[in-house]
Structures are given as structure tokens and as C-alpha cells.
Amino acid sequence: MELYELTLHELKDLLKKKEVSSKEVVKSFFSRIKKIDNKVKAFVTLCEEEALEKACECDQQQEYDGIAGIPYGLKDIICTRGVKTTCCSKILENFIPPYDATVARKLKEKKGILAGKLNMDEFAMGSSTENSAFFPTRNPWDLERVPGGSSGGSAAAVAAGEVPFALGTDTGGSIRQPASFCGVVGLKPTYGRVSRWGVVAFASSLDQVGVFSRDVRDCALVMNIVSGHDPMDSTSVDIEVPDYESFLTGNIKGLKVAYPREYFQQGVDEKIRETVKKALHKFEDLGAVVEEVTLPHSEYALPAYYLIAPAEASANLARYDGVRYGFRDFEADNVVQMFSKTRAAGFGDEVKRRIMLGTYALSSGYYDAYYLKALKVRRLISRDFNEVFKDFDVIVGPTTPTTAFKLGEQSDPLQLYMNDILTVPINMAGLPGISIPCGFVEGLPVGMQIIGRPFDEGTLLQAAYSYEQNTDYHTVKPVLGVE
Ligand code: GLN
User: Fold this and answer.
1) Residue 75 catalytic?
2) Any idea what the CATH number is for the domain that residue 217 is in?
3) Ligand 1 centroid to 309 CA: how many Å?
């Protein structure tokens, strides 16, 4: 067994017992990256030299606890002081932030070691990582397939053993969908649980930072570090953060599990439905009470999301004008032309599509018909969930309607948007959701989504951990043919 194959908690224990050094750990991951990342293409920036320096510092101090001395990756939307943060857009190609995002700072303070920045769909818009301005990332389970998106680099890196854990962001599914496609654990916390300060904004009322890991315990460990109120983010909520590891009891007797009828209908691949139904039986075997429920407004979530998210994006992305950040068109004769030429050359097609859609939905005369209507739908979706959570502790369903598709296969934007049909409602309601591996269809991983009450990530982790401990899907690793 090589060090790069171990989980965060296994590495932590070895370091603590002084059986390995941080330098050995970091070296093992970098040699893995060198061996396979020309195939997977998860990283857009590597920080090898700094990482080795940090590892030596850790080894000198000999204080190993939590993530100390252990490498990780960050989606390239999370600002890192002195390290390029591009959002995988041409417009930010050379942007080097002068500060760390709160989440990046927290990991640094715990002496975790940044291995590098991970590929994503430009400005987190997409479901396949094909919208990256640089190159697409590949799915470690089948290099002809996409890893999902927008945090595809984060999911692929964790699945391929390039880092033990990574952070991503999720606005409509961008953590859970790639986690599902790549067979790893992906948690989107409650809106307000984790600080967004220093994370480049896509749709501010939906964006949330979360964790990718190889098992549920690792997810809990990282959540313990990144969660909590941040005075720099007015939408982060000032309530106590429990010790998430304490929820990993392995006991879910009497837990009330709902499965929504709407999440098991046509449009969701039959084999995926069967796989998740099997998982529901497992929950029953473990002593949970499982019942069908209805979330009647589910079908309106996607259209409402594709008005709200672009509307917010059109406002957030107005700041990229060639004056303040990154790329600028120097050929223009005057300032107005400079703005428009910079944006025309700096943004990719999908980003432009969203800016146009959002600007239209917010324009006077259309605001009431589109944006306001979408906000009302959002409220109805929230209400559906509130009703179910009166009687149930968690809601379980598939994470995605299909398994990972081939690169180039979903070239129609509307087809690509359908990927989010089961994840978007959770963002609309601000709830926490986790995707964990629950089986395979034709050799490709299937993810099960567990949704919880606001700020009840603990119960999600409890349910996920019980399931994980009684199955072995999370232990199966992709074979990349270079071993
Ligand atoms: N795929 C969705 C979109 O394109 C969600 C993206 C996300 O969660 N960042 O908007």
C-alpha cells in the first residue's frame, strides 16, 4: 500500500505515531500526481516546492494533529494568497490574490499543505468541467468520460489518489454531482455554515463551499475545520459548530428516512433508481424507518434556478471589465470599447450565455415575469422540504439522473442543465446535502444523496457513516492503467 492510497484519518494516525514523516506523505502524493495527472488533468496549478518546504517545517516541529502535514487541493475559485486563482477563465488567467479566502486560511492555520489548485468549469458554470478555459478534466474511472462539474478537478483528484481531500463549491450541485460521477464523498453544507469570504462569487444566494473526501470520517474532520461564523461574511451564521466526528456512531436505529417520489421518476436512469432503492433497504436493515414522501414542486426547481443563478451571476460578473482584474484588451480606442472587447475575449460561451440570460431576467418589464416569479417558486420549494422535515430526519434519493457521460456527448446547454435536476432544489432551499458512493452501473460509480435539515450536517454524516460502514463501495478504486 502506498501512502497516497490512504485516507486523511489513516495518514493522520501514521503521522501521530511518527511512523511516517510529512515529507514522505507529500512526496508520495506528488509522485502520484506526476504519474497520472497528464491523463486526469485535475490540476491547473501545482505548489510542489512550497508544499515540500511546509512538510519539512512540520517534520521539524513534530506536532501532528488533524490535517497537519497532509496535502490537499482547492478548487481554483478559492482565493489563495500568492497563488494564482483563475476560476478557469481567461479573464482571471493571471490573477494572484493578495489574501487567502477564510477557508484557505483555516486549513493553512491547521498546518495542512496546499498541493495545488484544481480545474473547474469557468466561474463554476457547468456540469462537466468541459467549460474550463484551459482543458477538460477526465473521469478516473473512464478517461473518455467527464468527471462532472463544476468542481470536476476536485472530485477527480480525490478519486485518483492525487490528494486525500479537496474543497469545492456548490451552487446547484457542483460538489455532489462530480462526487457522484467520481465515486467519492461530497458534502455541500447548509447555506451560511461555511464562510464564502474570498471565494469568487457566482450566485451569492446559492453558493456554498464544501468538502470532497474518500470516506465520511475524513469529511467530518475537514468540516470541523472549515465550518463556523466569519465576521467577514455577513451570510455566514453565528451558531455553534458541533464536533462532526461525534456523529459517527454507526447507529441509525429509529432514524426517519424519507424518499421523495419525484426523485425516482422517469428521467432518472432505471438502474440508478434500482441501486438507490437497494440502498434504502440497507437503511431499513440498519434499523431506520423508511417511507415515501412527496416534494410536489420539484419539477419547477430547475427552471427557477436557471433564472435566479444567471441573474445573480450577471451582477457578480460585472466587475470583470479589464480595469480591476486580470485580462485587458489593449487594442481598444476608448474605455467603453475596452470594457466590451475585454469581456468578449475574456469570457467563454457559457458565461456569456448566463450573463445575457440574467441581464434579461432582471431588466425592467421582465423582472416581475421572470425573476420575481422564480423567487416565489423558490419559496414553494423550501416549503415542500419543511413539510417533510416535520416528520423525517433525512431525505434520500439519487444524486444524478445518469452516471458519468462521455466528453462532448452533452453539447446542448439545456441537456447539460438537466444534470442538476436532483441537486438544485437543495441549494434553492439552502439545505445541506451529501453524496456518497452506493454502487456501480456498468462499471461507473453511482451516488446517493442524503439531504438534511438546516445546520444538521451531523445527522447527514451519521446516516452516511452507518451506510458506508456496512457497505464497501467506497473502498473500490479506479484503475488508471499506470500502476
Ligand atoms: N451545473 C450547475 C450550473 O451550471 C451548478 C453549478 C454549480 O453548482 N456551481 O449552474
Assistant:
1) yes
2) 3.90.1300.10
3) 9
